[in-house]
Amino acid sequence: MKIGTVGTGVIVEEFLNAVKEVVNVECTAVYSRKEETSRVLADKYNVKQIYTDYDALIKDENVNFVYIALPNSMHYEYALKALQNRKNVICEKPFTSTVEEAKVLIDLAKEKNLFLFEAITTLHLPNYTKIKEHIEALGEIKLVQCNFSQYSSRYDRFLAGVVANVFNPAFSGGALVDINIYNLHFVTGLFGKAKEVKYLANIAENGIDTSGIAILRYDDFICECVGAKDSYSPSFAIIQGTKGYIKLNGPTNQCLSVEIGVGDKVETYNEQKYSNRMIYEVIDFITMYHNNDLKKCHELLDHSLSIVETAVMGRKDAGIVFAADNE
């Protein structure tokens, strides 16, 4: 895999640090609208080629994957253009702003036999796989609770009137799609798409949610997903069944360790050897690409579409409107 990165934020550096640790993948180009920012990133990670023209990047024959880490509202536009130019795509979460956008990208990727991945760490973590393996031991599931709360470094400035992209409906921001989205992936990956979605949110004057509680209803149990960028809490997830429980320690995007209690027996597991959570998804993407495993890729795309549908249902329930909704 030869990857061209799009964006220069912290998440791009975390991704590039993961790439450095994995074989059969390299970053061959970086893109930013500003040459100085792309140059700094390229120099830090020994990347020879920089671009300030996106069209030039997606025509580079030494790039076969484009990694997109731009503001949420821009994911669709940049992913669409890459796919149209026969580039495989890794798109940061959230996948897209709307269901319609997600369907267009997925259909195009399938039509052109291209790989299209959502960079969502949760699904690829060994500790998450451990949870999947032990779900049946819990008996009938009754309640699921997830809390991913992280006071944003941009929140104080937001209160002072400086609106960052993550708190801007024009850029498809907000707590649900920025942080609670990991909880939605966590739950949906275990139990499938919820039958009903409600979202109770703390909504700022500009219409964006700074924190909220998503209630997902399944046939036989209820799930509560809390995501906050305006307040503090320990992050965790708990799955409660008639025969036991599973407790995830830490946020759902990292799955730091897993405690499983069934009957009188309680065991704690941590099967993750890498500190960089993104290494596992990079390994999985490489494996699918080299094995030409489009079937697995399409299964993941079905999951990503379910997440977009769930998030949109939640936003609509809370009355949160993105600029992308009207396009």
Automatic annotation (TrEMBL):
Q: What residues form the membrane-spanning segments? A: none
Pfam families found in the cross-reference section:
GFO_IDH_MocA, GFO_IDH_MocA_C3
The chain's coiled-coil residues are none
Query: Which top-level group of life is the source organism from?
Result: Bacteria
Per the database record, which ranges form the GFO/IDH/MocA-like oxidoreductase domain? 130-246
Domain Gfo/Idh/MocA-like oxidoreductase N-terminal positions: 2-117
Q: What is this protein called?
A: Gfo/Idh/MocA family oxidoreductase
